[in-house]
Amino acid sequence: MGDHDSWYTLLMPEFWAKLEHGAAEALQRDWQFMMFKSTHFTLIHVAGALLAFVFAIFLALRYRASITDETQGVVPPRRFTLGAMTDRFVGAVYNLSVDVMGEADAKRYLPLTGTLALFIFLCNIQGLIPGLLPPTDTLKTNLGLALLVFVVYMVSGLLRNGMGFLGHFLGPKIGGFPWLFPLFLPIEIVSHLARPVSLSLRLTGNIVADHKVVGVVAFMVPLLVPLPFLLLGTVVAIVQTLVFTLLTIIYIGLAVEHHEEAH
Predict the structure, then answer these.
(1) What range does the domain containing 80 cover?
(2) Which of 128, 147, 186, 218 has its CB 3.0 to 4.6 Å from that of 226, i.e. a possible disulfide?
(3) Model's pTM, two decimal places?
(4) pLDDT at residue 30 above 70?
């Protein structure tokens, strides 16, 4: 398989070719500037993201079924089912959030942080399945997720603290006035804009590197030798999910805590 080949292109070549050709014509742009040159257009990452989305919904439904049975989720299941796995996964995200932002905000933002962690993990793990490509090995997917985080924590900071959140960009007040704002304002703006960039680039770089290493080793020696690299890839998928989720929790926690500092 090539870099842009997968089960989608091998099992449905004609349908997939027509789909990508139609999408490429509909999204064709006339401008080109610096790094925005013509590239190989593919929908494989979109298909992978949709697959992760569908499986995340399936896991959520299995978890919901596990807590609506006769035990009402009070008694742990005897078997390690998909519902129990989802409960442990999202529960770990919740416990991590409690340590950073407190119990109240952890519950408030768990639908975002839990879903984000589950989706990123399901995307990352696709790189270890032959014939699938991880949607997170492209900057487009990761930048979209990072921009979502950026918007959420900026809006959360404004809703929680009002103009006091923006006042944080001006630096400390001396005599009731932020005299150092010409220095602090550009620094704060750059630091906040760098957050989605660093989130997306970090995830992309690690997933691309891991996927390439596993692919090369599996191509050269397809039997037994790739197993340690597959285990390493699993660790990378988990760690990168943890890093992205933890930074998201930290950014939101810092934004909603500015209320106390602003006054």
Answers:
(1) 42-262
(2) 218
(3) 0.84
(4) no
**What integer is the mean pLDDT of 238-250?**
95
Which segment of 11-20, 43-52, 198-207, 217-226 scores lowest on mean pLDDT? Answer: 217-226
Structural domain includes residue 8: no
> In the chain, how many domains are there?
1
The per-residue pLDDT for 263 is: 41
> Which range has highest mean pLDDT (24-38, 106-120, 167-181, 248-262)?
106-120
Residue 171 falls within a domain, yes or no? Answer: yes
Distances (CA, A) of 69 to 60, 74, 75, 187: 15, 10, 10, 53
Cβ-proximal residues to 16 (8 Å cutoff; 6+ apart), any chain: 8, 9, 43
Q: What is the 3-state secondary structure (H, E, C) of the chain?
A: CCCCCCHHHHHCHHHHHHHHHHHHHHCCCCCCECCECCCCCCCHHHHHHHHHHHHHHHHHHHHHHHCCCCCCCCCCCCCCCHHHHHHHHHHHHHHHHHHHHCHHHHHHHHHHHHHHHHHHHHHHHHHHCCCCCCHHHCHHHHHHHHHHHHHHHHHHHHHHHCHHHHHHHHCCCECCECCCHHHHHHHHHHHHHHHHHHHHHHHHHHHHHHHHHHHHHHHHCCCCCHHHHHHHHHHHHHHHHHHHHHHHHHHHHHHHHHHHHHC
The amino acid at 83:
G
